[in-house]
Specification:
The chain is mainly alpha-helical. 76% of the residues lie in helices and 2% in strands. The chain is globular.
């Protein structure tokens, strides 16, 4: 086997193994020198991203990849009619998983490059980078695993690493308080997930997602497990009314961490969608569950944007907007579930709603990550998050201002940026389902635009304040990190159709095709 064949064959496990290796050797590299450490973390992140793209290409070209740990290729699947149960750890990477892998890889590279300068003033950077790579391990593991218990394990890895990074700067105890709130709620959510896993194992003697889906009876215990999983994962993705950890955690974490916390929240969103589509699907009342997700979405949109408008802390304002934008994803996929549950795979606008929600996951990771990074650049130079103490920074931080404008116009759904492309798909499809929901979504976008116009004026417009006379542009690594995300925001806005056809539509179909997922794992079951 050649080296390239080895990479292609083992790409699913390498997605977890490489960042794990990077995490545990980072303290050793830091003992040598800070330069060696920086080369190590950036190099390992680039290698991880390359593996993610290789795996995604393989999935989108040839179909789902099933990787069984410790088993030969001939034993990847155990047919149900033989009475067997897949007992080994299995990674199941379909188009939806690969879609999430791409998001994690892009944001990971941008944020880590940004961190080289943004965090350079701080101590204990070996611990920072170790925890950051453990976050990456958690996300890749959650979106790749085919085993519900291992999903729980990777969820816990992600939660612990995230809590450590939220508390990283301490900030007079406020960051520690935010991390403690996040940790307590994450622990509560993890207990819910563990209870649900116990219910599945007790009933079906299985932990494999495909096996549970095949044997699902939708008994009262299964309904209880569904409620536990939906509540836990909705809380972890920051959906209203379970969003109360989000403003504190997002605002107190370093901006580079906050940008990746967006992806971490989306991994939980992926878990929520995987549960309702792949594990339960037609056995449950899709209309009822779809409407529950829609209600989560509408509440998140409205409450998020309403709470964002009066904020004076730039990062807290953006945190509430992150909650609001999560609502669009929930709305699109919830409408898709409600429609496809009745109409099956024949409903065009049901699939358009799903595609819009899934496309918005990608777009939100790009422009929201960009906005948090611009906020970090501002704080890095002037040392305050208070909008009332800012002004005139457009004179000296021109590139940061441009990147902020790109992110702000994208989040508001203004063409030709990527946020417009996904929101338009959501508007059109949701209008056919329920016009009132589409109107609410449009009003929220208008309020979002108004909010960011206020922020733009407060931060960048007006005369240069005397105390900021010597403020300089952000360092080059920070600008490059922001530039990568800004370029994708523009590119996906200018050419949305190829992105939908190549990435989004396969992901939506993979998520909706429960039978195909089960067959790929269980050998034609």
């Amino acid at each position: 086997m050649t080296f390239s064949d080895f990479i292609i064959t083992n790409a699913p496990v390498l997605l977890v193994a490489i960042p794990l290796l990077a995490a545990f050797l980072c303290p050793v590299m830091g003992k040598i020198s800070s330069m060696v450490r920086n080369f190590w973390v950036m190099g390992m992140m680039l290698v991880t991203a390359a593996v993610a793209f290789i795996l995604a290409y393989r999935v989108f070209v040839t179909g789902p990849v099933i990787y069984v740990f410790g088993a030969a290729a001939a034993n990847l699947a155990i047919p149900l009619d033989s009475g067997g149960i897949p007992i080994r750890i299995i990674f199941t990477v379909d188009a939806m998983s690969a879609f999430m892998d791409i998001i994690c890889a892009i944001v990971g590279v941008s944020v880590l490059l940004y961190s080289l300068s943004a965090e350079s003033r701080n101590s204990s950077l070996e611990g920072y980078y170790t925890l950051f790579f453990l976050m990456i391990v958690g996300v890749f593991g959650m979106v790749s695993t085919g085993d519900i218990f291992n999903f729980f394990v990777f969820l816990e890895i992600l939660s612990l690493a995230s809590a450590g990074l939220i508390a990283y700067r301490i900030d007079g105890g406020l960051a520690v308080e935010a991390a403690l709130k996040y940790f307590i709620l994450s622990t509560l959510g993890a207990i819910f997930v563990l209870f649900a896993i116990g219910i599945f194992y007790g009933q079906y003697n299985a932990l494999n997602i495909a096996m549970i889906a095949e044997r699902m009876q939708f008994s009262m215990l299964d309904k209880i497990a569904l409620v536990l999983l939906v509540a836990a994962l909705a809380m972890k993705c920051g959906a209203v009314p379970l969003h109360f950890w989000t403003p504190d955690a997002y605002s107190m974490a370093p901006s580079s961490v906050t940008a990746f916390l967006v992806v971490a929240s989306q991994a939980s969103l992926y878990g929520l969608f995987r549960v309702v589509f792949t594990m339960y699907n037609i056995t449950m009342n899709c209309v009822t569950v779809g409407w529950i997700i829609i209600i989560f979405g509408v509440l998140s949109m409205v409450v998020g944007v309403t709470m964002a408008i009066p904020q004076k802390d730039i990062k807290r304002l953006m945190a509430y907007h992150a909650v609001s934008q999560t609502g669009y994803m929930l709305l699109g996929v919830g409408v898709g579930l409600a429609v496809l549950g009745n109409a099956g795979l024949t409903s065009a606008f049901g699939f358009m709603a799903m595609e819009g929600g899934i496309f918005h996951i990608f777009n939100h990771a790009m422009y929201k990550g960009l906005l948090f990074l611009t906020a970090g650049a501002i704080i890095y130079r002037i040392g305050t998050r208070d909008l009332n103490k800012m002004g005139g920074l457009g004179h000296t931080m021109k590139y940061t201002m441009i990147f902020f404008m790109i992110g702000a116009l994208a989040i508001a759904g203004i063409p030709p940026f990527n946020g417009f492309a996904s929101k338009l798909m959501i508007y059109e499809s949701v209008y056919l389902f329920n016009p009132l929901l589409a109107i609410i979504a449009m009003v929220v976008s208008i309020l979002t635009l108004a909010s960011f116009v206020k922020v733009f004026h407060s931060v960048f417009m007006g005369p240069k304040l005397p105390e900021y006379a010597d403020v300089k542009e952000a360092p080059l690594p920070m600008l490059i990190g922001m530039g990568i995300l800004a370029a994708i925001v523009i590119l996906f806005g200018l050419f949305p159709q190829p992105v939908v056809e190549i990435l989004v539509a396969p992901a939506a179909h993979a998520l909706a095709d429960q039978g195909g997922y089960i067959a790929s794992v269980l050998g034609g079951a």
